[in-house]
Amino acid sequence: MAIEALGDRVVRVGIIGTGTISRSHARNLLACADVDLAACCDIVPEAVAQFAGEFEVRNTFSDYRELIQEDLDAVVVATPPFAHKQPVIEALEAGKHVLCEKPFAMNAQEAEAMADAAHQTGLGLAVCCSRNRFRQEAQLIQEVLESGVLGEIYRSRQVFLRRRGRPGFDILKDSAWFLDFARSGGGVIADLGHYQLDQMFWHLGWPEVVSVSANVTRNVIEPVVPSEIKNDVEEHVDATIRFANGKTAAMELSWITHMEGANGMWFYGIQGGVRVTGDVVLFHDLNGRPVETKIPPARRFDPSNVDRDFMEALREGRDPVTTADQGVVISKVIDGIYASSEQQAEVKIT
Length: 350
Prior knowledge:
Blueprint: E1 11-16, H1 20-30, E2 35-41, H2 45-55, E3 59-61, H3 64-67, E4 74-77, H4 85-93, E5 97-100, H5 108-121, E6 125-127, H6 136-147, E7 153-161, H7 181-184, H8 188-203, E8 209-217, E9 236-243, E10 248-254, E11 264-269, E12 272-277, E13 279-286, E14 289-295, H9 305-316, H10 324-343, E15 347-348
Parallel strand pairs: 1-2, 1-4, 2-3, 4-5, 5-6, 7-10
Antiparallel strand pairs: 7-11, 8-9, 8-15, 9-10, 11-12, 12-13, 13-14
Helix pairs in contact: 4-5, 5-10, 8-10
């Protein structure tokens, strides 16, 4: 969706939520040329005061409704997932472009409402699940896929397993909301699945999803989270996604797994394949003989580019990565993963 370009003037930005992830946004925005981090908001007075002092933010608020009435061009919503929908919609209705943290929404219904608000206002709404697209290996994969050397892709697969890494327990121990479905909207899928699905769908050209078959596990992999800590989210998921073009993609993610060395991405084409397990390796034929070619990195990419891309998109009047409509697709797939696991059956995505 085309938006009115801001051009070369200073872009005034406010941040809603001043937790850990907001500091990453602040650093990235301040590294951009002609960006003024003018306001911040948090319901915890000490948190917003500390953030404002750390990043020299002039205007502070305890209510996001006051912040969005300020003379701002854009707002970053960096609250926990349960507090995304209303600030996003109200900021758009107040005339502000919005960059929303992932997961985009608690479910597809919320995501659609947020995307509808962007369409109705004609303003930009981007989702932060695009971070993986800027990684070095992701850029290399995309270059290979776009070159056509693999031929038609018929299958893709990705695995990302942590040995120990449950937010709110193993790591980020001050962020217990990660383990509370009512606040997080999910476990490892909400935390990592948005990144993985966004990258995979981008590589595949965002084909239409028709169905999902999946299974999730909750607090069964030892050592389990003690019962005195609320934990009703999944720790492991495996899913198969079917597209309208007849192709399939598989995804496996985990916060805690008794395994090492299994992570990677694989793309199967009719003329060649790519494996990314640290190195990017192309499998193809040369003069009728199967060969392997290691593809050296051409340059480095900064995952923080999600903020920079958003600023550049506003200046140029173009779509950012990831768009609200793409965020809706991801939300529908994630809803489908939970439904499939509960029903123990493949479910349709509409």
